[in-house]
Design a protein that fits this description.
- It is built from 17 helices and no strands.
- By secondary structure, it is an all-alpha fold.
- Helix 10 runs parallel beside helix 16 and helix 16 packs antiparallel against helix 17.
- 61% of the residues are buried.
Length: 394
């Protein structure tokens, strides 16, 4: 495979360029992922109890979110080309907050499916355009730090929701709409604070998906598909799993807070490996850690096992999209980054679409532990496939 040379800026590398702008840009992943996607796992037990859902129905809401994400991946490149990356990022942030507010306003299952899909679509606009902006910053600073900071922003959203939602809903599941209101307010604040972080007039390249990049990088793309189908089951059903094992509200809160904080710390662990290791090595390593972390929780609701699982999961799952983005950045010219990242996001969204529903159906039959086994198995296969990719490099 021919690796494209990425033009580097002559600007000096500064702490501000490596950390300042990416940290505010990371409020995008905090909102689009941490609040709009992952926090649903914390609200799921209360909504399931109050609305009488099966685990498959609960998983279908995550599937709806992923379908919206898939649609967003398809339209992100042409929208960004028409509106610019910065404007599309800001639009996605506003729409994400609005979708969260709309989720609080109804208990109708079909309407909730629509609001979750809308949140997925809006979040994808943020995810892709923010990733491209962070990629340009990484190129100018010759470091993967801006990328890992950007993706680890989801950890901030997880930690915030993990600290607030379990105490709110623990003894009062009927308050679940209030939890969505709080998430909408937090997403609105993130929109304001990140507004000027999305800046510049970077080229978005072609206004269509660059599917050729998926063909060229088919082994990492397949691993990314397996990761998407697997990782989402863990974070969607973790609270349901702990609740089924009679974990206390304190333990659930502590577990989610640790998971989120570990994700925030991920840049310290993964920036150098993603920057300096052979192209697929960091991806294989992060998938292997993720698989082991999910398997560790199968020991039951034992606090030590669950704590270790949450830390391992939080420290590794956001490194996967960062490593994939670094692979794309190395293998394609800057003018094609938006189209290539959008194409890989379609692959990612396809995995997320089927994963939660299938994992939920397995859980209805075999118990909530099946969702953790699902995550462990798929990520292990993805790590093995990526290892084969790495061993074939010269």
């Amino acid at each position: 495979m021919v690796v494209a040379t990425v033009p580097m800026s002559r600007r000096p590398v500064t702490t501000q360029s490596q950390w300042g702008q990416p940290a505010r840009l990371a409020l995008g992943t905090a909102s689009a992922l941490g609040l709009a996607r992952f926090a649903y796992g914390l609200i799921l037990p209360a909504m399931r109890s109050e609305l009488g859902w099966s685990l498959a129905q609960a998983g279908a809401l995550t599937t709806a979110n992923a379908l919206g994400y898939l649609l967003g991946a398809v339209v992100a490149a042409p929208v960004a080309r028409k509106l610019t990356l910065a404007v599309t990022f800001r639009l996605g942030m506003v729409l994400t907050a609005a979708a969260l507010a709309a989720t609080a306003a109804t208990s109708s299952y079909p309407v909730l499916l629509l609001t979750r899909a809308a949140a997925g679509l809006a979040g994808t606009l943020v995810f892709i355009t923010g990733g491209v902006i962070a990629s340009h910053t990484a190129a100018s600073t010759r470091s993967a730090t801006p990328l890992t900071i950007y993706y680890s922003g989801a950890g901030m959203g997880i930690a915030l929701s993990g600290a607030a939602i379990p105490p709110l809903l623990g003894q009062h599941p009927g308050r679940w709409p209030l939890a969505w209101v709080g998430l909408a307010a937090a997403a609105g604040l993130a929109t304001v604070l990140s507004w000027t972080a999305a800046r510049g007039s970077h080229q978005t390249g072609t206004a269509h998906l660059d599917l050729r990049s998926v063909v060229r990088l088919w082994q990492p793309a397949t691993a990314y598909l397996l990761f998407a189908a697997g990782y989402i089951a863990y974070i969607t059903f973790l609270s349901a799993y702990l609740t089924a094992h009679r974990a206390s509200i304190t333990q659930i809160t502590f577990t989610w807070a640790l998971l989120g904080l570990a994700a925030v710390a991920a840049p310290v662990l993964w920036s150098r490996p993603i920057s300096t290791w052979p192209r697929a090595t960091a991806l294989a390593a992060s998938l292997a850690v993720l698989s082991a972390a999910a398997a560790a929780a199968l020991a039951g609701a034992d606090p030590v096992a669950v704590t270790g699982s949450a830390i391992g999961y939080g420290a590794s799952f956001l490194a996967v999209p960062a490593a994939v983005t670094a692979l794309i950045r190395a293998a394609t010219p800057p003018s094609q980054w938006t189209g290539a990242l959008a194409a890989f996001t379609v692959v990612f969204a396809a995995g997320q679409t089927v994963g939660p529903y299938l994992a939920g159906a397995l859980a209805d039959r075999y118990g909530t532990g099946a969702t953790l086994a699902w995550t462990a198995a798929l990520c292990a296969v993805g790590a093995a496939l990526t290892t084969v990719t790495r061993s074939g490099e010269h």
